[in-house]
Amino acid sequence: MTETPTLLVVEDDATINQALTDRLRAEGFTVVQAYDGPGAVAAHETHGPDLVVLDVMLPGFDGIEVCRRIQATRPVPVLMLTARVDETDVLVGLGVGADDYVTKPFRMRELVARIRALLRRVDRARELAGSGTPRLEIGDLTVDQAQRRVSVAGAEVHLTPLEFDLLAALAEAPGAVRTREDLMQEVWGWSDAHGTRTLDSHVKALRAKIGAARVRTVHGVGYAIEAVR
């Protein structure tokens, strides 16, 4: 990660875009702005940002298509901004490579915390990649932390970076229940899980890829990873 991370802010509302930009610059980030789908893809290619703050509803083509295109060329952490509360929309965004999402209206402090957490995750992933961390095996599920690869019954499963981190956190202690607060702290870097469905949405996306039976819900507590018999 560069000393001063570069962020790409994509938001078609000029007032919101500028407010986000001003706050993020005040937090010490370098910020590039875009206001529509084609402009976002072009800015990503030109500036190579360290993270993208991406609105879902954009002119030209929407944020889902932006995310799909930029992740196909040079993967980058993406934090989506959405006014939609439909879980299907959220899961589509996560499915094309978004790492996290914030629902409008949002607090600037929360947005900045999410951004910093995603950037920390990138640094942590790079450290793990060179650490020789052993593979984790839970039944026919294999999690290779060094290479950041996952397979089920020998077939590779493609996870987003954040889905991988969530799975790795659960796989460190198979069968043990990890609380929502612990997972939010370890994976996202912030402990206040109240009022957000971010963790639940990512668990649902993870289940769709590795098999729902492998992730057990303990209502009111959290989640556990288990071998499928």
TrEMBL record:
Residue ranges of the annotated DNA-binding region, renumbered to this chain: 133-227
Residue(s) carrying 4-aspartylphosphate: 55
Domain of life of the native organism: Bacteria
Cross-referenced Gene3D superfamilies: 3.40.50.2300, 6.10.250.690, Winged helix-like DNA-binding domain superfamily/Winged helix DNA-binding domain
Domain OmpR/PhoB-type: residue ranges: 133-227
Keywords in alphabetical order: DNA-binding, Phosphoprotein, Transcription, Transcription regulation, Two-component regulatory system
GO biological process: regulation of DNA-templated transcription
Residues in Response regulatory domain copies: 6-119
SMART domains on file: REC, Trans_reg_C
Name this polypeptide is given: Response regulator transcription factor
GO cellular component: cytosol; protein-DNA complex
Keyword Thylakoid among record annotations: no
UniProt-recorded Gene Ontology molecular function terms: phosphorelay response regulator activity; transcription cis-regulatory region binding
